[in-house]
């Protein structure tokens, strides 16, 4: 806690010149400027495709996204239908050879959902949202843990793309919640919901949390408070409100139940406070701070090739359990067509205060045997610092472009200090740079292209076949 507080305070001055985010009872964050109000509901198939009309009737809206593309990677791995991102645009341990690839979800996860707002009485509404993410090429449910299972016992150089995720094949693998909303008292919702940090990153990342161009979008470490499986909570109570006629905004979230309720932690708690500063002709600045705590957080992993664990139980996964605490500072400044972004997060990982004593099933329903659970890996607390900055510029109402830089910094947390790649506990860094252009050529269609370059160093490069990747990507997105 002492190091956590010092790092959080020291970083405040470093990012206060960035800023501006949307604040609403039910926030929908995007890297693009706010869209104009939608016209009346679609009356024909032609209207559905060529106009901005929504599929909204009696307060209920069916909505979705189909995002398809292709790309090249200098050190890539083959597409996996289960991993949420499809491929590994961000360099990973198994990244190994040049590949041309289908790249689903370059800008956003393909999904289908239904949401609604129904009036209960004047000033009080019933709200709900149910959304399912999928791979548009194979129509497979997004399921990160299943992609790990696909690569159980497979040598790194022969693996397909894989990564852990909070999306684990559930019919509500995005969100599935309901609640009540009031302009005066705020919004209270219950069910599967994004963490406050996931909402925050989507609002304050210059790449909008995209898979192809954002490190903090592709990898869920930042949005899960340390572990990506905790980026969404299946049994969450979440509250958001504007205080004092938009004087500032607040948010809070708490998890009910544990692993047996399809959660990836024994408990999760979070709080947020934010403020918008309108300078009139000089622009707008917004700032947010988020604190998050995960008790008994799960980080799943494939079983190693040739290991006794894989030979004995090939249909199970391994896992690391930790208590994670994080603090995130976010800012964005908007001036005419320019938006400048910045963010900083400090994450502390520690051995669990309540160690597990038995096996359990993870959020995808895959068994994790007690013998394959690590609960003593943090001889010293691991401190991971994540920071980013970038900007977007709208050249026209239809075309905007962005640039972003991401940096991770990990301390040495093993028995002895090390600053090379001899162990994953050594101090290390990750750096990534990306650019993209987005062209909204029709009401519901946009085309995009860009590139992300990522590189790992020292402890964060431990076990990697190659330590860098160039990943240019282009795609087409349909949103309704």
User: Helix-strand pattern, N to C?
Assistant: HHEEEEEEHEEHHEEEEHEEEEEEEEE
CATH superfamily: Porin
| Tally of separate helices | 6
Overall tally of domains: 1
Q: Judging from the principal axes of the Cα atoms, what is the shape?
A: globular
Q: Order of strands across the biggest sheet?
A: 2-4-5-7-8-9-10-11-12-13-14-17-18-19-20-21
What is the helical fraction, as a range of percent?
A: under 10%
Computed Rg = 22 Å
Q: What is the distance, rounded to the nearest whole angstrom, between the alpha carbons of the first and last residues?
A: 45 Å
- Count the beta strands: 21
Strand count, sense and closure of the main sheet?
Answer: 16 strands, antiparallel, barrel
Q: What does this protein structure show overall?
A:
- The protein is globular.
- Residues 1-30 and 32-36 have low confidence and may be disordered.
- With 480 residues, the protein is mainly beta.
- The longest helix has 14 residues, at 2-15.
- It has helices spanning 2-15, 45-50, 144-150, 196-204, 215-218, 308-312, and strands at residues 55-57, 60-76, 97-102, 111-121, 124-135, 140-141, 175-182, 186-194, 232-243, 248-255, 267-278, 284-301, 317-335, 338-350, 360-361, 367-374, 382-394, 399-410, 428-439, 445-458, 468-479.
- The chain has a 16-stranded antiparallel beta barrel with strand order 2-4-5-7-8-9-10-11-12-13-14-17-18-19-20-21.
- β1 and β2 form a beta hairpin.
């Amino acid at each position: 806690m002492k190091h956590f507080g010092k790092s959080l305070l020291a970083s405040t001055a470093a990012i206060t010149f960035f800023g501006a985010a949307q604040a609403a009872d039910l926030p929908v964050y995007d890297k693009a400027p706010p869209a104009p109000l939608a016209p009346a509901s679609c009356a024909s198939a032609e209207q559905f495709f060529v106009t901005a009309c929504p599929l909204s009737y009696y307060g209920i809206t069916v909505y979705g996204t189909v995002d398809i593309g292709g790309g090249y990677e200098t050190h890539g791995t083959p597409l996996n239908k289960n991993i949420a991102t499809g491929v590994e645009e961000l360099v990973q341990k198994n990244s190994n050879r040049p590949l041309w690839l289908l790249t689903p979800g370059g800008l956003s996860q393909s999904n289908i959902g239904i949401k609604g707002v129904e009036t209960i009485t004047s000033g009080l509404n019933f709200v709900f949202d149910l959304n399912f993410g999928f791979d548009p090429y194979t129509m497979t449910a997004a399921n990160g843990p299943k992609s790990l299972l696909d690569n159980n016992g497979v040598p790194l150089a022969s693996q397909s793309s894989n990564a852990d995720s909070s999306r684990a094949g559930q019919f509500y693998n995005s969100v599935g919640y309901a609640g009540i909303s009031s302009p005066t008292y705020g919004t209270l919702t219950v069910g599967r919901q994004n963490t406050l940090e996931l909402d925050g990153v989507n609002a304050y990342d210059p790449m909008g949390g995209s898979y192809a161009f954002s490190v903090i979008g592709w990898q869920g470490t930042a949005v899960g408070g340390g572990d990506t499986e905790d980026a969404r909570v299946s049994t969450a109570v979440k509250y958001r409100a504007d205080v004092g006629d938009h004087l500032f905004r607040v948010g809070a979230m708490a998890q009910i139940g544990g692993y047996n309720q399809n959660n990836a932690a024994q408990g999760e708690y979070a709080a947020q406070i934010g403020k918008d500063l309108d300078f009139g002709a000089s622009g707008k600045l917004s700032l947010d701070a988020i604190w998050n705590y995960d008790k008994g957080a799960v980080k799943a992993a494939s079983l190693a090739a040739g290991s006794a664990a894989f030979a004995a139980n090939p249909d199970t996964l391994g896992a690391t359990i930790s208590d994670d605490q994080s603090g995130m500072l976010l800012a964005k400044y908007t001036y005419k067509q320019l938006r400048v972004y910045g963010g900083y997060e400090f994450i502390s990982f520690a051995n669990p205060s309540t160690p597990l004593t038995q096996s359990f099933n993870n959020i995808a329903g895959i068994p994790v045997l007690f013998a394959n659970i690590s609960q003593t890996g943090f001889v010293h607390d691991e401190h991971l610092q994540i920071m980013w900055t970038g900007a977007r510029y709208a050249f026209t109402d239809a075309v905007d472009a962005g640039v972003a830089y991401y940096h991770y910094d990990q301390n040495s947390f093993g028995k002895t200090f090390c600053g090379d790649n001899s162990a994953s506990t050594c101090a290390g860094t990750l750096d990534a740079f990306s650019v993209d252009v987005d062209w909204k050529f029709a009401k519901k269609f946009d085309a995009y292209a860009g590139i992300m370059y990522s590189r790992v160093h020292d402890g964060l490069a431990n076990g990697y076949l190659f330590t860098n990747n160039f990943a240019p990507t282009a795609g087409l997105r349909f949103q309704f």
